[in-house]
Amino acid sequence: MATTSNTLCSSCPDLSYTCVNGLRCANVKLLMPKSVVRTGSSTKKEYVQAFYHNARRVIMSSHLMPGHFEGTIIRKKKLKEPNLKVDLVRTLLIDNYDSYTYNIYQELAVINGLPPVVVRNDEWTWKDICHYLYDEDAFDNIVISPGPGSPTCPTDIGICLRLLHECSDIPILGVCLGHQALGYVHGAQIIHAPQPVHGRLSEIEHNGSRLFHGIPSGRNSGFKVVRYHSLVIDADSLPRDITPIAWTSSSDALSFLATQKSDIIPDDYESQFGEKSHLDSTLTKLEKENCWPSCHSEGMQSKRVLMGVKHSTRPHYGVQFHPESVATSYGRQILKNFKEVTADYWSRWRSSLFSKRDAYHAAHMQVPHVKRLSMEDQISGKLMRSADGTLCRDTRSGQLVCNKNEKSSFALFNMPTIPCSSTSVKFLKLKWRKFDQLASKVGGARNIFSELYGDDKAENSFWLDSSSIEKGRARFSFMGGKGGSLWKQVTFTLSDQSDMTSKCGGHLLIKDAQGSSSIIYLEEGFLDFLDKELLSFRYEEKDYEGLPFDFYGGYIGYLGYNLKVECGTAPNRHKSTTPDACFFFADNLVVIDHCSDDVYILSIHDESTTMTSWLDDTEKKLVGIKASTTRKSGKQTSEAASFSPSEAGFQAEKSREQYIKDVKKCLRYINDGKSYELCLTAQMRKTIGEIDSLGLYLHLREKNPAPYAAWLNFSLENLCICCSSPERFLRLDRNGVLEAKPIKGTIARGLTQEKDEQLKLHLQQSEKDQAENLMIVDLLRNDLGRVCEPGTVHVPHLMDVESYATVHTMVSTIRGKKQPSMSAVDCVRAAFPGGSMTGAPKLRSVEILDSLETCSRGIYSGSIGFFSYNQTFDLNIVIRTVVIHEGEASIGAGGAIVALSNPEEEYEEMILKTRAPAKAVTEFLQ
Hints:
The protein is an alpha+beta fold and about 950 residues long. Helices cover about 25% and strands about 25% of the residues. It is built from 20 helices and 40 strands. Strands 16, 17, 18, 22, 25, 26, 27, 28, 29, 30, 36, 39 and 40 form a 13-stranded mixed beta sheet that branches. Strands 19, 20, 21, 23, 24, 31, 32, 33, 34, 35, 37 and 38 form a twelve-stranded antiparallel beta sheet that branches. The chain is globular. Residues about 1-70, about 75-85, about 270-300, about 350-365, about 370-420 and about 630-640 have low confidence and may be disordered.
C-alpha cells in the first residue's frame, strides 16, 4: 500500500509559507488539475498553477475543464422488486489519512448494522474500485472522510475526485475534505475560509433537505456542529449542478461550553451506547432547495459559511462540519438520514431485502485483505494464539476458532496479525500475600521503596508512583528491583533511519537474571516483539482473583516517542540519544493500595523453576520497617510561578525568538488546512555530572506530586527517569475496558486562593483551550474506535479542570470496550504516540512537527507504564519529567498550537510546564 498521502502535498504553489526542508516536496505548492485523460487503465494528469488573486482571498481552484474525466460509469441494472425495508447497509469508507475517520466508522457500524470497509485514498486503484462497486456489487454507498490539505492537491484527495465524478449512480456522502471535493470536482472554487475554525462550534441553518430530515434549523434551535477546517467551497462559484443545503446561521464560531446553555445536548456526548429519540415534528421546507434564506440581508449572507451541498441529480451530499464529533448535535441523525437516502435510492433499482449473511459476504468476503469476523462472532471470551500462530478463543468454552489471518471486522485498518512468539510458550504461576493497612504503619510508599530498593543507588529499580491520589485520580503504586529467575532487561534502539529504507528495524539487547547478554535484530520493531512475548504467556485467572489491581508482573518501562514509526508515521528525522524502549521483566513486586492502605507482595515463576524465598524475605523486611521521618527537601529559591528554567542553568534548545517563529509557522500550516492542531515542543538541558538521582526524584515527587509519576533506573544504560506526569495515555483493565485521559489546557496556580480560583475559571472558560481539548478528545475517540467494539466508545468526562501543585489542567476521559480479537499491543499501536502530544490529524501533524523540531524528543512525549502478563496495561504520557542520561538532565515541554493561539503566550505556556521539574533540580543541587 502506498503511504504518500500522509505527507505534505508535493504538487501544490506556495500559499503563504516557505518550503519545509526535507519534506517530500522541493517546493510546497498548490496546483489544480486541469485535465485527466484516461488511456487504457492508466491516467495522464496535467496541471496548471493557481495564483494569489488578492491579499485577503486566495483562490485555490478553478472550474474543471469539460472532459475533465471521461464519461461516468452507470450501473445497467433493471428494476427488480418494489420498495422493501433495508436493515443493513454496506458502506465503503474512504480514509483521507485523517484522525477522525474511525469515529465515522464507529457510528456507521452501529447505524448500518454492518461495519464499513475502510480503504485509504491511495490504497485501491481505479480498477479495484470499479471491480468492487460494479462487478461484485459489494457496496451500497460511499462515505469520503475528512482529511488534511485541499481537494486541489492530488496526494491529499487520492481517488476521491474520480469517485465523485464517475460514480454518478451510487450514494456518496463527503465530510469536510470530502464535502469540498464534491464542490471542486464539479467546478466550484476552494478558498480560504473567513477564519480557520478548529474545535469550535456553529449553529446551522438548513433548507430541509433529506439529509437534515428531523433536525431543527437556525439560531437557538439546538443544531450546533463542530468544525475543523481552514478552507471552504466558495458559495459564489457554485455550478448549476451543486445546490447549497446548509450554512452557518451567523458569522460567529462558539466554544463548546458556550453552547451548553442550550437544552440540546449533542447526541454523541449524551450517550454513545443508546440512541437519541427522533424529533416528533418535521421542518417546513423552504420554497426552493437551491436558494439561500431570504430572511437575512445580503451583507449577512456574505459573512456566513457554506456548510452543506448536494448534487441536483445525483445522490451525492457533502457537509463541511464533522457529524461524528462528540460535541456535534444530531450528528448520528445525519448519518441515519444518509442510510435512508441510500435505501430509498436502491429501492428503485433492486430488492433491498437481504440476509445478514448475504450482506456480510458481499461487503467483506469479496474484498481481499479485509476478510473479518462477522458481527455474530463478536462474542466474549479470551482470545489466544496457539503455538502455530492460529488465532482462537478458549476452547474450554466451545467458542469460535478462526483463521490466523483474521481480525475483527470492526477494525479494518492496517494492523498486522502478529504470530506467536518464536520462544516457547511460558506457563506462569502467581503467588501473593496481603498485609492489611500496613503502608502508613511503615511510613508510606516513600519509606517502603527507600528501605527495600534504595540501597546501592537504587540500581535496576522501578516505581510507578501514584504520588497524587486526590479525588480518586490514582490508587495503586507498583515498585520493585532486580528479582528472580525470570527477571530480565530489554533495551531497544532503532536503526539509523537516515536512508529512509527501514522504519521499524532495530537492535534489542537482552540481559537476563544470570547476567548473560545477547543482541538480536528486530526487523519488525519492538512492539512486534512485545506482542509476541505477551501472547506467549499462559496462566490461570484464579491466580489473581481477589487482587484489586491489574498488574501482576510482566514488562515495566517506557516507550520512546520515536516508536511512532511502528504505528504508521513517516520515518523519524531525528535519532534519540537514549534507547527507544527500555523495559524490565518484573517477576517480583510490591503493590500499595493508597485507598485502603494495604500492601501486597507478588511473585511469578514458570513451571521450570521452583518458588524462591523472595516472598518470605520481603515479608520480614516489610514488617520490620520503622516509620521514619522523610529527609528534608532542598531550600526553595523562588516561587514556581515566576521561576525561569534559565535560572537553573538549563540551556534551551531554541531561543524565545525561534520558538515564537516556529509557532507562527504552525499557524501558517493550520491556516492552509495542513493540520488542525500542532503540539510543538522543545528541550532544555543541563550538565549535572554525578547526582543522587533517587534523591532528586523523591524531592520532585514532594514538590510536584502526580497521579502517574514514575521512577525508572536502568543502570546498564546510565539512565534514570524522574517523572511527575499528571496525564494517563491509555489503560486496559482486566474487563477489557480501554481508557484515555488526555490533557489539553494548562495554566499556573495562583499565589492566593482568590487568584487561584480566578485562574481556574479562566482556564475553564478559555475558548482556545476548549478547542484544543475537543480536537484531542475526538482524536482519541478515533484511536480507540480502531480497536473497540462499535457503540462502546464514549466520553464520560469532557473538559474537567483538575488542580495540581503548580498548575490547573483541562482533562477529558474517553472509554471503550476492546474487541476480543485485539491484543494489548494492538491497542497501543492504534493510539501511540498520544494525540495530546502530536495534534490532529496525527500522521500529517507528526511529519510537520518533525520538520520544525531540531532534535528527537526521546523519552519525552512517550509513555511509561506496565504490560501485565495477562494483557492488561497502564501507560502515562511522559511530561513534567527530568531524564538523566550520562550526566546530563533534560526536560521537554510544549503546547498545542491552534488557530486561536498567540505565539508569545504559547512560549510562556511552554516555559510554565518546565518550571516544576527545573526548579526541583535547582533546589536539590543546592
